[in-house]
Amino acid sequence: MPIKIPKELPAFDVLSSENIFVMNTERADTQDIRALKIAILNLMPIKIQAENQLLRYLSNTPLQVEITLLQTKSYIGTHTPIEHLEKFYRCIDDVKNQKFDGLIITGAPVEHLDFEEVEYWEELKDIMDWTKSNVFSTIHICWGAQAALYHHYDIEKYILDKKLFGVYKHWNNYANDNLTRGLNDEFYAPHSRHTEIKREDVEKVKDLEILSESKEAGVFIVANKNRRQIFITGHLEYDRDTLKDEYFRDLNKGLEIEIPKHYFNNDDINSNPLVTWRESANVVFGNWLNYCVYQNTPYNIDDISYLDDISQSQKPKIRI
Questions:
Q1: Looking at 111, 213, 237, 292, which residue is catalytic?
Q2: Does 243 reside within a domain?
Q3: Which of 140, 142, 196, 209 is catalytic?
Q4: Annotated binding residue at 17?
Q5: Disulfide engineering: 231 pairs with which of 135, 145, 153, 227, CB 3.0-4.6 Å?
Q6: pLDDT 10s digit of each residue in the chain, 320 long?
Q7: Quick check: is 231 in a domain?
Q8: 142 annotated active-site
Q9: Is 249 one of the annotated binding-site residues?
Q10: Which of 140, 152, 191, 235 is labelled catalytic?
Q11: Which domain holds residue 12?
Q12: Distance between CA 250 and CA 258 in Å, rounded?
């Protein structure tokens, strides 16, 4: 089954050109099937780019997925046309009485600020609390992961000596876990951040497990034991040129920036970057949709219970 998005959304043409099966909402509404309801809280400044990246991996599945795009109400970015935001985005007040099978909270370029200094922090806290009763499983990405770990578990972030920027080798700590099954023992993922979380802080929380980490990039994938909260500190969703574009953007601004590690062939910035993480991205996002969401979320979406009501040993009914 395909991903279900409006035909006017830019991602529709992008994904169709890549031979990804995309179904417009009009056609999907004629099918007698309950699509998975997945929301994306897009905190990235260039929202269309982030949409395309995430929708590409949510499309690579036999499941029908219905997407709702969300933005904050307390802060409206200026890097995306207002017409696009008004047409395709909603705020949490518009959906607060709805339930979703899954939600993705993206990263945001606000690492230099303390969490409490972020303009939309209070709203984001309310949204993260809302997910515990209205979303079956939530993925948090990069700064979104750090923000959620801080809010839910009081895990601090730490400033790095220099920006972690490049594509790094990781290992899989749980080869048979629902989220990481199918990953190679060693795999690659992009990172672009100035802050980190520390392994010892995560290990103090009994409900959290470190599923993947890296010698150079540190903790990568963390999840609570029932996989209803997932935290990914890097960017598996990135395109081939995302780090390249970021590098030249900062270079042109006169900012101090190093060449992304393990990214350009022989560090030649004029070469075509090597994609070494696409397979891993497909595995993780596909596993999340299938095992963490589809196989466990209630068929009647209104039956989604509060996060803490389902323990590791209490499995909900399987959807068939």
A1: 237
A2: no
A3: 142
A4: no
A5: 145
A6: 456 667 777 867 766 665 455 555 554 454 446 889 999 999 999 999 999 999 999 987 778 899 999 999 999 988 999 999 999 999 999 999 999 999 999 999 999 999 999 999 999 999 999 999 999 999 999 999 999 999 999 999 999 999 999 999 999 999 889 999 999 999 999 999 999 999 999 999 999 999 999 999 999 999 999 999 999 999 999 999 999 999 999 999 999 899 999 999 999 999 999 999 999 999 999 999 999 999 999 989 999 988 875 443 334 443 43
A7: yes
A8: yes
A9: yes
A10: 235
A11: 3-159+193-238+278-309
A12: 10
Does residue 121 belong to any structural domain of this protein?
Answer: yes
If DSSP states are collapsed to H, E and C, what string results for 23-46?
Answer: EEHHHHCCCCCCCEEEEEECCCCC
The domain total for the chain is: 1
**Is 163 marked as a binding-site residue?**
yes
Would residue 26 show up in a list of annotated catalytic residues for this protein? Answer: no
Q: Would you say 21 and 2 are in contact if contact means Cβ atoms under 8 Å apart?
A: yes
Output the CA torsion 110→112→115→117 (10° steps): -90
pTM reported for the whole predicted model: 0.88
Distance separating alpha carbons of residues 3 and 242, to the nearest angstrom:
23
8 Å CB contact between 47 and 77: yes
Report whether 133 contacts 127 (CB < 8 A).
no
**What CATH code is carried by the domain that includes residue 291?**
3.40.50.880
Cβ within 8 Å of residue 257, ≥6 positions away = 163, 165, 247, 250, 251
Helix (H/G/I), strand (E/B), else coil: 135: strand
User: Would 174 be classed as within a structural domain?
Assistant: no
